Amino acid sequence: MKQSVLAWFDSARYQSALSDTQASGIDWVRILPFIGLHLACLLVFWVGVSPIAVAAFAFSYLLRMFAITAFYHRYFAHRSFKTSRAIQFVFAVIGAASTQRGPLWWAAHHRQHHRCADQAEDPHAPRHGFLWSHMGWFLSREHFVTDPKRIPDLIEYPELRLLDRFALLVPVVYAAAWFGLGAILSATAPGLETSGAQLLVWGYFLSTVVLIHATLTINSLAHVWGKRRYATRDDSRNNFWLALLTLGEGWHNNHHHYPGSARQGFFWWEIDLSYYVLKAMSWVGLVWDVKSVPEPIRRARLVQAES
Ligand SMILES: [Zn+2]
Ligand SMILES: [Zn+2]
């Protein structure tokens, strides 16, 4: 139990404690912060709402969803574009503020998902239970640990290893920053009718819970709900609503067909907001070598052609 509590802030403690065992099942002590995050949303009945609080919610959601989809997923897990070491670190930190653990942990598990999607070794296949695919897997002991063999290209960066090890410190600082901003605004601009507690609840607690579950729908819903364009070996689907919610990740059948593309909406009508922002970043030199889907691959293995 002591290891689980210490591992809230230092995941290396978990790594060493589990290395000799084949532990499994939900670690209730370890996930107390996750449960607390959900309960904290109830504070909204106490702090109320204001226009600036809604703006804080939206800004916080969009910024971190972009860091998750464009960087945790398309960059760290799939290396579908290139960037500088500084930009890599900045978006790794913003991604960590999403409270979805560090970039190494995230990329290692996601690469495993692609290696054997919807098979026995997939960490989060809905075939193993819908709730398991949405939440159960990452709350379980066997999935707290990062396998370094899956991320040899990322583990060489000491700053990423450090960030991964102390990943929960980032959201703590991020949440405190929202509280601080709210406190400053209530003192300097009382007309906004906000407070430290209100921006903490809207900018961090509510925004983070929605962000986490929206991200998780790609592991759960995007493997059961939607249309299949490509005859991939998994159950992945394309879903317009999930694509809107996750800035483009809902084109998940496209993505399983060709994971190396930074662009997941393969056609102009498939809205992929993360890709548009990446494209704009490439125009000013912040990222480069942004990969798209080659035309022969876009036309290959179509479900309609096979049936
Ligand atoms: Zn998938
Ligand atoms: Zn992927």
Structural features, described:
The protein is mainly α. Helices cover 53% and strands 1% of the residues. The mean pLDDT is 93. One zinc ion is lined by residues 113, 117, 223, 236, 252, 256.
Q: Bin the strand percentage.
A: under 5%
**How many separate helices?**
16
Largest sheet: 2 strands, antiparallel
Number of strands: 2
Q: What would you call the quaternary organization?
A: single chain
Beginning-to-end CA distance, first to last residue: 54 Å
Strand-and-helix sequence, N→C? Answer: HHHHHEHHHHHHHHHEHH
Q: What class would the helix/strand composition place it in? A: mainly alpha
What small-molecule ligands were found? zinc ion
Considering DSSP H and I runs of 4 or more, what fraction of the residues is helical? 40-55%
Stretches where pLDDT falls below 50 for ≥5 residues?
none
* Whole-angstrom Rg: 20 Å
For the record, the count of structural domains works out to: 1
Overall morphology: globular
Mean pLDDT reading: 93
Q: Report strand order across the widest sheet.
A: 1-2
